Every structure is written in structure tokens, then in C-alpha cells.
Amino acid sequence: NGITPDCDDLRRVGGVNKRFYLGNTADLTYTEDGSGYVNSISFGSIYGGLYEFEGKKKSHSGGYTLVTQAGGNTFFQHDAICKLISTTPEDDETIEELSVADVFIIMETNNNEFMVYGIDNGLAMSAATQNTGQESASDITDTLTFTGEERRKPRRFLVTNYAATLAYLEARII
């Protein structure tokens, strides 16, 4: 197989939407279509669905790094960095609970695509920082970093089109 970009591919925009979806991998099942897109997710009774988080525009990011070990195994490290503004004890408790959770994250790119990180093996919070800063323009967000190891690159989520995929995800928010 080869990869050849067309004119639309050359006009892609980096970055992700200010909202993202997070779910626990403990009771997740999913299917994919014949083209390799994840096209459905379902949950058991333990967690029951997706949680929607929202930060400021241009604050989150997701990606992967190929890791090759001396012993010969190779895998993809998935990374999701999420910046949240916590203002209540309930927000603080949510972040504390995420510190011990095994999750997957779905981010919407600025190209109206949905990328899934950690869908098979899960992501764990590997870092979390927050600081009041010294000036009024300081970054005071909670910056959460999730990492995990997967056999494949981050997966693409698509039901049939952008609008149907967005509606599908929103219908699974609890």
C-alpha cells in the first residue's frame, strides 16, 4: 500500500476540539467496520457510558510514539494531554479518581474526525500538574497526562459521517 495525499489532505488543520470523551475500559466492548474504523462502543453496568470533559480551545492534544525495544518487541505509546479548569471540590475529586482509573479517550480533531486513544489496553494518568502561577496571565489549569501501550496506532471512530458520529457519542454521555 502507498500513501498519496490529495489537495484536501494538504489543507488539514492541527489541534483538537475543546471537548473530549473519556470512558473506563473495564466494561467496554467495541466493534469496527470492514475498513478498520471503530463504529460502535457499548458498556456494561459498571460504568455505563462516556464522560464528557471540556477545557479551553487549543488546550488538549493526543498522539502516539513508536517504541522499539532491544528485545525485539515494538508497540505504540498513546499519549493524551488534557487541560482542565477545576473550580470545585467535586472537580478535584474527579481528577483524583482519574489518577487510579484505566481509561480510553476520544478526541475530536479540527478536521471533524474522532480519534480513540487506549481503546484496547487503556490509558493511565502518568502525570498531573497545577500551579497558581506568579502573574495574572499564568496557566492555572490542571494538566493531566495519560499514557498507555497499544499494538496499533490510535484508532479512528466513525459511525457513518461526522454528524452521526457526534450524535452517537453524545447519546452515550452519562
Summarize the structure.
With 174 residues, this protein is mainly beta. Helix content is 11%, strand content 41%. It contains two helices and eleven strands.
Please explain how this structure is put together.
With 174 residues, the protein is mainly beta. The chain is 11% helix and 41% strand. It has two helices and eleven strands. The strands form three sheets. It has a five-stranded antiparallel β-sheet with strand order 4-1-7-8-11, covered by helices on one side. It has a four-stranded antiparallel β-sheet with strand order 5-6-10-9, with no helix packed on it. The termini are far apart. The mean pLDDT is 95.
List keywords for this structure.
mainly beta; 5-stranded antiparallel sheet; 4-stranded antiparallel sheet; 2 helices; globular
Write the layout of secondary structure elements.
Blueprint: E1 16-24, E2 28-32, E3 38-43, E4 51-54, E5 61-68, E6 74-84, H1 89-98, E7 103-109, E8 114-117, E9 124-129, E10 142-150, E11 155-157, H2 162-170
Antiparallel strand pairs: 1-4, 1-7, 2-3, 5-6, 6-10, 7-8, 8-11, 9-10
